[in-house]
Design a protein that fits this description.
The protein is of the alpha/beta class. It contains eleven helices and nine strands. Strands 1-4-3-2-5-6 form a six-stranded parallel β-sheet, sandwiched between helices. The model has no long low-confidence stretch (mean pLDDT 96). Bound molecules: pantoate. The site of pantoate has 10 residues, from strand 2 and helix 7.
Length: 259
């Protein structure tokens, strides 16, 4: 497995493999079984698997959130190697946002609701970095988790609007045995907070907006940012809560498959 730190290195490493499909799994590290399921799918479907590893400052509104985001590059690289990744693109912030950077991608409507309303600028940061990753890697397929349903909707819209030649592959949310959706942020929860956080998947599992809101209103020790039905593809019941200093999002599909 090769690790490239620069755009030039990444492009040159991919020069000779363009005759077969290239799959990109964009990550911010803190790899868990959810990421591994994306890497496995990419490994099955593509000749070359690229994983990006970049904690993107542009999608964090809050300095504390950015500073506390789990980082363990050695562990992430070992997991990527075990998953059969061919190339990891792990750039510095300066490589992705050189001095004078001033071009941003805004998916205006899809990106302004729900998470977009609670985290202004978040999806602008996501769309910009994902477009730049697409430009660097030029993947045939890009892999994302349904856990971030609105992120998927934003990227789908961006691909459509900008006529990007990338096949978007969306894989089901992976959950722990207790139902909590896997997230790099779960590592920041205390045992007690984790118990309280379970109210979110339990509420969403009702697949009923009124019941979910009532259940969360009765739950102690968490603050609800929103519980809403979102007309994504597929439509989902989505929610965001804060438990201590950790903010968690989750969703369940309301029709179609069981993502
Ligand atoms: O889902 C994530 O981990 C990030 O939002 C992504 C897609 C890697 C962009 O930074």
């Amino acid at each position: 497995m090769k690790v490239a730190r620069t755009i030039a290195e990444t492009r040159s490493a991919l020069e000779d493999v363009r005759d077969g499909p290239i799959g990109l799994v964009p990550t911010m590290g803190g790899l868990h079984e959810g990421h591994l399921s994306l890497l496995r799918a990419a490994r099955e479907e593509c000749d070359t698997v690229v994983m990006s590893l970049f904690v993107n400052p542009a999608q964090f509104g809050d300095e504390h959130d950015l500073a506390s985001y789990p980082r363990d590059e050695e562990r992430d690289l070992a997991l990527a190697r075990d998953a059969g990744v061919d190339l990891v693109f792990a750039p510095s912030t300066e490589e992705m946002y050189p001095a004078g950077f001033q071009t941003w991608v805004e998916v205006t409507e899809v990106g302004s609701r729900l998470e977009g309303a609670f985290r202004p600028g978040h999806f602008r940061g996501v769309a910009t970095v994902v477009l730049k990753l697409f430009s660097v890697v030029r993947p045939d397929r890009a892999y994302f988790g349904q856990k971030d349903a609105q992120q998927v909707a934003v990227i789908r819209q961006m691909i459509r609007d900008l006529a990007l030649d990338v096949d978007l592959r969306v894989l089901p949310t992976v959950r722990d045995d207790d139902g909590l959706a896997l997230s790099s942020r779960n590592a920041l929860l205390t045992t007690e907070e984790r118990k309280r956080a379970l109210a979110l998947p339990r509420a969403l599992a009702t697949k009923d907006l009124t019941a979910a809101r009532a259940l969360l209103a009765r739950s102690n020790g968490l603050d609800v940012d929103y519980v809403e039905v979102a007309e994504f593809d597929p439509p989902v019941l989505a929610g965001a809560v804060r438990v201590g200093s950790v903010r968690l999002i989750d969703n369940v599909a309301l029709e179609g498959d069981s993502k």
